[in-house]
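Fig. S4 source data, part A: sequence.
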Amino acid sequence: MTRRANISTGTGKRRVYSGQYALSSIVFCAHCGDLFRRITWTNRKKKSIMWRCVSRVSKKMSGIDCPARTIREEDLQAVVVKAINDVFSGKDTIILILKENIEKVIGSGNDSKVEAIEAELAELQKEILKKANARQAYDDIADRIEELRREKQALLLEDANKEGSRQRVEEMEKLLDEMETAVNRMKAGIIRCMQTEDYCPGTADFRAIANKTGAFADIEEEIEIIGFINCGGCPAKKAILRARELVKRGADTIVFASCIQKGTPIGYPCPFAKKMKEIIQNDLGDKVQVLDYTH
């Protein structure tokens, strides 16, 4: 919190920390070094959550023509989750490399330099007393003492920052050791009825995922929608090809929209629903989960 409360960006400007969102004040622009800020865009009455470089948002005030692109929040979150999983999967190697690199930069500290300064300060103090007793000018010695004190303070601050870096690596190592599993995210591919897509926009399906209701009520992890596609038409022979494509694009769960299994919104279930699920499950195997309905 102390670090976040005293953020100085690559532009040299101080930024105020906000703890309202998980990524606040920890996402920096790769171009200008300034922070990324969470903003809301409204286009045709539809709101979207985006993250933008502060220098670009306040271009007139910053005077910086930053070329950083705006990022959708869901894309940013997905990248963060992937990065955490990558670190978790190779934590032993990453921690070792991180420690080695930090030790190369940090070195053994400034103890010897501080001791040398203290020794010189002690001698100068003796000399300044002699000159004072002899009523001689000692301005040059006083200037040197002040200079050495500043150097000592800078060295001590540098050592404190180095120790802080070591502690952060140790904290990271401890955190990774305590993590039992990587950060999980369900990646859902939805297959809907072709006969109902011309009048059903799938709003209830998306709402069930967003609110984690219906078939998603017991899902603890975040849910990402990989795709939303129709079955290909009766008798659903194309559904297996659609399911393969969804998995190819990253889906680990195939979800049948309720219009197939339950017949919503007209109360007419698909007569091929059972067979469709069976052939898709057999084709994709146990690695892909299949859900019967959405809501």
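Fig. S4 source data, part B ends here. Residues 1-8 have pLDDT under 50 and may be disordered.
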